[in-house]
Amino acid sequence: MMKLYNSLTRRVEPFVPLEARRIGMYVCGPTVYDLPHLGNARSAVVFDTLRRILMHAFPHVDFVRNITDVDDKIISRATELGEDIATLTARTHASYLEDMGALGVLAPTTEPRATDHIAHMQDMIARLVARGHAYVSQGHVLFEVATNPSPGVLRDTSGLQVGASQRVDGMDYKRSPADFVLWKPAAKGEPGWESPWGYGRPGWHIECSAMAAEYLGPVFDIHGGGSDLEFPHHENEIAQSTCAHGTKQMARYFVHNGMLTVDGVKMSKSRGNFLTVRDVLRRYPGQGDAVRLTLLSALYRHELDFTWGRLEENIALMSSIRSVAARSSSPGTPDAGLVEALQANLNTPLAISRLHYLVKNGLSDALLASARLLGLSLQAPAVPQAAPQDGPEAGGQPDDEEIIRLVSLRQQAREARDFARADSIRDELAALGVSIKDSPQGPVWKRMGGVNAA
Ligand SMILES: [Zn+2]
């Protein structure tokens, strides 16, 4: 029995679908103007893993993940690059799919684009106006939060409400500062669509409400996204959907993943610790499985700290998994302990500890099936050709990172049975004053006067 933490009730509950044969799941997708970073990847990998464990128990999971391809950030990025919006969004979307594919994330069942659903959004906005939940003001259509019979479903903000008399600067088209935009005017020359309220474009929240209803109906099973989307995005989605459809709920379970830090701090371009999926795979080519395991190494609701050391541990673990799983001779079933861990509110750290157990005991059939269930491709990374610029600077001492990288390349070469290449890396390490021994636990390397396990 699957159990999930439901943000609506703030507790772990048994997962009971509306229809046992068809689960409906919606996850907020990317705004396509930039390459996906590790935080985006964590969310995609978490919900892909949830989807896979649901698919293990239920015959059909309808997984809808939208693409936001009209947005202020997209417009300003396109202007900055001197590129038209369609080209920018198509290119960025293709990169997103490629990068997520490298991490084993399955393509969604349906991947609707916001710009293909403007009519659905306009219908929904018109319905909200007709039902008295939205009003038109200075070319905007706004959702009137005060008309929502059940506000604060995900976060109770009643104590924070600013009185209607306290106008926010520049927001004098709103009856209350909490009211949010469903439709906003666009200037001539800006992307936009004709509407009953004038030329303009939709707000972000209405996109998800309209596309979720279009593909999954007014009430569906699971709505997912990062914890940063819980408020106001999901709160507003619920308000729009329930008020437009006259339902009590939008989705029966809301599931949120925690944020990601790098070396203990929030990722930011100004701090220089901002990592895209490509940055990571450029440093460790072909190690998508290890990146996936790293992104699953903490409980999904907790913060996850990404470090190179943690990734390197998972590179070593993947190498052991591949060599044990390669001995599998018949199709097995996933380890019961691993399935149970995933069904217990997606306890991925416990599931990963089961992988360690299966490796240690050489249970290759169960390991192969378990790794597949976790979304691991088990493809050995291609061994890159020697890249001279990757070597340490002449005369300098190689740092641990460089040694670990070489040790891992050598391990990959051994797995690919390219022993000539493995030997030449061993020679390269020897030239750096590092010796290497292969133990049952994996390679162990030694610098003058010390021992390290890689
Ligand atoms: Zn959304």
Automatic annotation (TrEMBL):
Cofactor: Zn(2+)
UniProt: Zn(2+) binding residues: 28, 208, 233, 237
SUPFAM superfamilies documented for this protein: Anticodon-binding domain of a subclass of class I aminoacyl-tRNA synthetases (SSF47323), Nucleotidylyl transferase (SSF52374)
Family matches, as Gene3D superfamilies: Cysteine-tRNA ligase, C-terminal anti-codon recognition domain, HUPs
Binding site for ATP: 269
Sequence ranges assigned to domain Cysteinyl-tRNA ligase anticodon binding in this UniProt record: 404-442
Chain positions of motif 'KMSKS' region: 266-270
UniProtKB keywords: Aminoacyl-tRNA synthetase, ATP-binding, Cytoplasm, Ligase, Metal-binding, Nucleotide-binding, Protein biosynthesis, Zinc
GO biological process: cysteinyl-tRNA aminoacylation
The enzyme's E.C. designation: 6.1.1.16
Domain of life: Bacteria
Residue ranges of every copy of the tRNA synthetases class I catalytic domain listed in the record: 15-313
Matches recorded under InterPro entries: Cys-tRNA-ligase, Cys-tRNA/MSH_ligase, CysS_C, Rossmann-like_a/b/a_fold, tRNA-synt_1_cat_dom, tRNAsynth_Ia_anticodon-bd
GO cellular component: cytosol
Cofactor note: Binds 1 zinc ion per subunit.
One Gene Ontology molecular-function label: zinc ion binding
Residue ranges annotated as motif 'HIGH' region: 30-40
Protein family according to the UniProt entry: Belongs to the class-I aminoacyl-tRNA synthetase family.
Quaternary structure (record): Monomer.
Record-linked HAMAP family: Cys_tRNA_synth (MF_00041)
Name this protein carries in UniProt: Cysteine--tRNA ligase
